[in-house]
Design goal:
Layout: E1 7-11, H1 17-24, E2 31-37, H2 43-50, E3 57-62, H3 66-78, H4 80-86, E4 88-90, H5 96-113, H6 127-131
Parallel strand pairs: 1-2, 1-4, 2-3
Length: 135
């Protein structure tokens, strides 16, 4: 596998791959590799990722679901010397910055819903609050 510095690596279930691509497509000195789980994304999500024709965007279809494709990414990032040498960065849910943003989203949803609910259990995407009629 060829890594071009700096490299951004992303495994996706379809929800973040196209956003990650959009954030760096056409950028100079930054490449992105996206691992797309074959058959586990919608056709629209797949097209959003596979039709970007920029030299710095590399999308690969892989066997397995998004959880399974996180494993080789974690293995690569466990090699600290390799990560430092190639200036690697992850752009997916295994990235702590995304976890922090999601936490802020959950608190925002909670505080918006609390006045109208007896209890609130924020879930990813606010699904728990939305199902209880929070607006």
């Amino acid at each position: 596998m060829l890594f071009i510095e700096p490299l951004r690596d992303c495994g996706t279930s379809g929800d973040t791959g196209s956003a990650a691509i959009e954030s760096v497509k056409g950028a100079k000195n930054v490449d992105i590799i996206v691992l797309l789980p074959k058959g586990h994304c919608t056709k629209i999500q797949e097209l959003q990722m596979t039709t970007v024709l920029k030299e710095n965007v590399h999308v690969f279809g892989v066997e397995g679901n998004s959880d399974e494709l996180d494993e080789p990414i974690k293995t690569v990032f466990a090699d600290v010397a390799f990560v430092k040498k190639h200036n690697l960065m992850s752009l997916n849910s295994i990235n702590w910055s995304r976890v922090l943003v999601q936490m802020a989203h959950h608190f925002l949803a909670y505080f918006q819903c609390t006045p109208s609910l007896d209890t609130a259990s924020p879930t990813p995407g606010g699904g728990g609050c939305a199902n209880r009629g929070c607006r």
